[in-house]
Amino acid sequence: MNIRLSIVEDALNKYFESGDFNGLPVRAIARKHGISAGELDPDLRALVQDEKIEIWFGNIHPNPHIKAFSWVTKEQQIEFLDSIGLSDDCCVYPSKKTLEKEPRVAGYLDRPYAHEIAKGAGQLDHRTFELSVLEFYRNDPRYYYQTDDINGSICIEDAFYESEEIQERDQVLLKTFGFAYDSEFNRFAASFIRYLADLSSEHQQIWKAKEVSGKHTLHPDYYRTNIIGDWGIKVSIFEAFTEELSIINEMCKLIGRPVLFRQTFAESRPKKFGFLLRPTLSEFNAFVLLLDQMLSDNINSGFFTDIDKEQEEERPDGKIVVRQKGTIAMLEEWVNRNFRPHDPEPVEFLFKTLRRVRKLRQKPAHAINEDAFDQKYFKEQRSLVMDSYNAVRLIRLILSNHPAVRKSPPEVSEYVRDGKIWDI
Fold it and tell me: Which of 131, 151, 373, 383 is spaced 20 to 30 A from 333 at the CA atom?
């Protein structure tokens, strides 16, 4: 058989028989034909030029045994042959044009993302989806749904793995998902074809139905951790929020007081304490309720050992009644008594924000169709979260002025200390 035809056929067989759409190492080709990698250069170069094969060198992605991306052109491959040269570790893949005529591709029609790889897509090409695709998993207790609003994963809970209570098609694992944005910073779910292809046929079709077209950019830290293989440079605002609560409580202990917040949620962050998955009024109102429960409802009245917790009020009929002070009022009184800022505006912002959240909770907006989809709720939630985080951060900064805290400050992560926080 002609060596070039042999290379294409062997590359096809390796691609479909490896079980993971792997490439054919150059060393295997050289060994079969009894020549060196360098001697293969003219034939491989011609096959690339004719768009019969593609060559991965490992300079774009460290593992040449998978075709990571689909955007590498034949011109770039020729340039790599000239500048880097062939090595035993380079891998050969059938080109998209070759795969168009390959009958084995049809065997993946019922699995849309496996089918994309079978047709030559890059395994680390990403696809974007309506956020609502995640709701099914987040709201179903049979799944372990984890996200820090940058990276996430989904898997079946151990109790339901291979259980008769859940069908095999639903025993899914999605190793990683993240988020992406369009030019107007509308938020979408995202994942890589490689991991979507591992889902069952039924779940691949669910995700395919929620896929959106257009230009979307991966979250910067999701790209860094999954494509570059580097550490993220910031944390999400929701993670920073719970860390602030923890730091505040540590400060309370240092100054000899009960903790200010009854819970910090650092170890068990509520699943729905994150950006909305569906931008509807009902979802927004549910988030406001949760946020107020983590703020005003979460304030421990026992912290205020030097504040009168009751106040007298005169009713319209002239009678005097005694009422319990609210937690916001007690905190405001305590701050005003113990803290004298040069600029009162930040403190005014703090209590304005706490009362804004409480008011939104007590008198939620209503509409005839509370489930109507509107991207404005993403933007309204983001604004509210940013203000609420800044309010909690200000409480920490106020407590940091106490002599006992200045003497022995609690540990604060670099991200929170330096404001390295994602608010998208």
Answer: 383
